Amino acid sequence: MSICLFQTLFEQVWAANDYEIFKRMMIQKNVELQLQALEMIQQRYGITPQSFLPTERDESLQTEEESRIMEEVIKKSLEEYETSKKMLDSSTLEIEQSLVSSPEERHRLEAECKREKELLHTALQHSIEPSSQKEEPEQNKYEDNEIQIKTQVDDTEVMKRQKYLKAQRDKLLALKKQEREKQLQAVESGSSKQRPRSAKAAQSALAGQPENNAQTLQVRKALAERLKSEVVGRKS
Question: Residue limits of the BART domain (predicted)?
Answer without folding.
Answer: 7-34
